[in-house]
Amino acid sequence: xxxxxxxxxxxxxxxxxxxxxxxxxxxxxxxxxxxxxxxxxxxxxxxxxxxxxxxxxxxxxxxxxxxxxxxxxxxxxxxxxxxxxxxxxxxxxxxxxxxxxxxxxxxxxxxxxxxxxxxxxxxxxxxxxxxxxxxxxxxxxxxxxxxxxxxxxxxxxxxxxxxxxxxxxxxxxxxxxxxxxxxxxxxxxxxxxxxxxxxxxxxxxxxxxxxxx
Length: 213
Description:
Blueprint: H1 3-14, H2 41-51, E1 55-59, H3 64-75, E2 79-83, E3 97-101, H4 109-112, E4 117-120, E5 124-126, E6 131-134, H5 143-147, E7 151-157, E8 161-162, H6 165-171, E9 179-181, E10 186-188, E11 194-196, E12 203-209
Parallel strand pairs: 1-12, 2-3, 2-4, 4-7, 5-8, 7-12
Antiparallel strand pairs: 5-6, 6-9, 10-11
């Protein structure tokens, strides 16, 4: 008899007198805090994103189109990928060529390497960790469109920001393709030399859209 079989035999003997309809396993009560209460969500998120070397701008709700256009102009982004479901009004002031990406008509991977960037929304953002979560929903697109281009402009509404990770997890569907982004793509070698853009965008720019009064 192997060690595994001996252990399983002991477990079976120990549970022999437990009624079949009474589970011996009890759900543990976990006193996890939803957040650490470090301050207003938008201010904390902005601080964390800047710490990760992301570019961040606070934007009034009626200035999104102007700020998207300004961001693309600063970047000299003439051709950008736009996932299906992205609000058309975001680009009302922009002269950039928009390449629509959808499940039925995806932008070819070879073309993704040649665009100047991608513009998306998000599913939720976590203030305490400075994390933006994409779930492949409308305005977010498939994972490739946010990993291949070197520049990612993400529009995050104030009502999408939560304090902590537990709150975010409850809002997300675990069966969807979740991408958790904490700043631009970066890695370090054994000597801690930072290299950016290895497995994702070298530049992450975030427009935090404030709630209209």
